[in-house]
Amino acid sequence: MITFLAIDWASVGIKALQLILSLSILVILHEMGHFLPAKWFKCRVEKFYLFFDPWFSLFKKKIGETVYGIGWLPLGGYVKISGMIDESMDKEAMKQPAQPWEFRSKPAWQRLIIMIGGVTVNLLLGFFLFAMILWWWGENRLPMSNMKHGVAVNSISESVGIKNGDEIVSIDGKPVKDYYSLTRDIILDEVKAVQVKRDGKIISLPLPKGTIRSLIKRKQQFIEPRVYPIVDTLFPGIATFTQDTLLKDDHVLALNNTPVTFYDQYRAEMGKYKNQEVALTVLRNNKDTVIVKAKTDTLGRIGFLVIPEKVAGSYKQKFDFFPAFPAGVRKGWENLVMNVKNFKLLFTSDEVKASESLGSFMSIGNMFGAEWDWEIFWSMTALLSVVLAFMNMLPIPALDGGHVLFTLYEIITGRKPGDKFMEYAQMVGMVLLLGLMAYAIGLDFWRFLFK
């Protein structure tokens, strides 16, 4: 059970602000994608809203024929176009004869352009943001060839049969080039076997059933780079130093005179010394050997962090301004494909459970940084823009994809679905979406309260 007093409300607030700002940008631009072509084709736009406004609005102002406003329910936004069956379910207006300025009076091709405008803007925005991120900050890279000492296992990879020091060569015969894509590819491609190099020989290790589910449930990397125990970050207060102190870039050579070559060996050895004084032999400045003594805590920790990816030689690959644009499109497309695969797995995989994978705005908010970080903010906004484009194109009534499907049917067959059918389809779609949203919010609250 969660203790509310133990929650870091400052970080929760920062995450919430980032989420609201990100959603505001995405919703406004998405709805602008509908608004502009509607205006170009001489449709009357009655409302343009950021967030939903059941019962009341936080702000509204009429400019010309359109009311611009901000709702109080931050679950999306909308533009209300005259003569269109949408979230407003304005049945009375639909009973009147069609007017030249109404959506329903326009040719099917114009209505199709209006409906795909929001998704188009979200895709272009995602591509643009990824391009700017690659140009300004770059992208994390860690070639598998940089991992000179192989991999360090955890409980998941160890259960597969991988050993510390193995070199991962391929998954299902497909070469693995970069560490950061390994876990993602294992999950999305439902990999059946991992090929490793051990003692000069290639061994194929099948993944037992439940491996992929464990990776998703624990949100854990499949392996880590095997590296030397080189101090990166210190956490004051975890342990009490009784002789000297650890410094950044200290290289731990031994623990209580037992040599520890790699970080995984250090962790295994340290687990034997809980709430005890230990002596660390460290190499400082690549020349001085120093003895550091400290009392460990009840978990056997001294309070320093090694970042294996950093020690193994990860780096930021940056792009020049113009090459960043095709690279941004590629990255955006990769994320779109990832979302399609992930969605497919919800229905086809025994390993991927909706109750463990689905989440609402609470889950999304937790993906932002606990401190304001513009790289994380724009990366999340780019990702959400692509996700929003994909989700809106699902052929579900009440989503853009549902309207597009009915419009394409009209263009192909020459028969327009009746207004009554469209009303009922919209109602069914709204019920489905609200039910899914309620389910996702319920899952998040369950995790928050009991996990």
Task: Give your account of this protein's structure.
- There is one protein chain.
- By secondary structure, the chain is an alpha+beta fold.
- The chain folds into 3 domains: 4-134 and 380-450, no CATH class; 144-226, Pdz3 Domain (Roll), CATH 2.30.42.10; 233-312, PDZ domain (Pdz3 Domain, Roll), CATH 2.30.42.
- The chain is built from 14 helices and 17 strands.
- It has helices at 9-40, 91-95, 108-136, 155-160, 179-188, 211-218, 263-270, 308-312, 324-348, 354-357, 361-366, 374-392, 400-413, 419-450; strands at residues 45-63, 66-81, 139-141, 151-152, 167-171, 174-175, 193-198, 201-206, 224-225, 233-234, 240-243, 251-255, 258-259, 277-284, 288-295, 304-305, 315-317.
- The strands form 6 sheets. A 5-stranded antiparallel sheet has the order 11-15-14-12-13, covered by helices on one side. Strands 6-5-7-8 form a 4-stranded antiparallel sheet, with no helix packed on it.
- Strand 14 (277-284) and strand 15 (288-295) form a beta hairpin.
- Helix 1 crosses helix 3 (108-136), helix 3 (108-136) packs across helix 9 and helix 3 (108-136) runs antiparallel to helix 12.
- The chain is elongated, with a radius of gyration of 27 Å.
- The N and C termini lie close together (7 Å).
- Residues 1-5 have low confidence and may be disordered.
* DSSP strand tally: 17
Strand content: 15-25%
Q: Which shape, going by the Cα principal axes? A: elongated
- Spans of at least 5 consecutive residues whose pLDDT stays below 50 are 1-5
Percent range of helical residues: 40-55%
- Average pLDDT reading: 88
- The termini sit apart by 7 Å
Query: What is the domain total for the residues?
Result: 3
